[in-house]
Structure formats: structure tokens, C-alpha cells
Amino acid sequence: MKRLAARQTMYVNRLKNRSGTLWEGRYKSSPVETETYLLACARYVDLNPVRAGMVAHPKGYAWSSYRQKTGLEKPWIDFDPCYLGLSNDIKGRRR
Q1: What are the helix (H) ranges across the chain?
Q2: Nearest to 82 by CA among 35, 33, 34, 31
Q3: Which of 8, 42, 55, 73 could form a disulfide with 67 if both were Cys (CB 3.0 to 4.6 A apart)?
Q4: CA nearest 40: which of 90, 82, 87, 89?
């Protein structure tokens, strides 16, 4: 597998006139330090399938927590306290 990966890298580098590994510089991470940023990250993740054109609405993506967060399905996930703190009821959190 290592040899195959090395050959693929050489092939792609030659084809694209580049150098280095294929996955160089692609991974980024940043700490989630505030509750506001955590909620923004969760919203971003739930809306990604819509942005990618995979579904018209986040409730249409099977692997999203959107339906559970909005009460369309019985929740099987644990909600973050900052999400629960948005409102005392699910309709308020949905807004």
C-alpha cells in the first residue's frame, strides 16, 4: 500500500506539475472556545449538505442532527448545554 500511495503521489505531482504529498496543508483545526462559536459550528455542519447541493433542506440529510434538534425525530443524541440554553422549549430553540 505504501508503494502504491507513493506511485500515485508521483503520478499526480507529475500530472499537475507540483511537488509534495497529496494531502499536504489540507487539515486545519481551531479550538472552539465560546458557546457562540460552538453554535455557529453546529449550524455550519447541519447546513453543509444544503450548500453542497445534496439536499434542498437540512432535514433531508439522513446523517444530520437537524431533525432531532428541531423535534422532527425523537432525539438519540445528547444536546450541548449551550444549545439547550437557547430556549426552554424546542420551538424557541428551532427559531
Answers
A1: 2-16, 35-51, 66-69, 81-84, 90-94
A2: 35
A3: 73
A4: 82
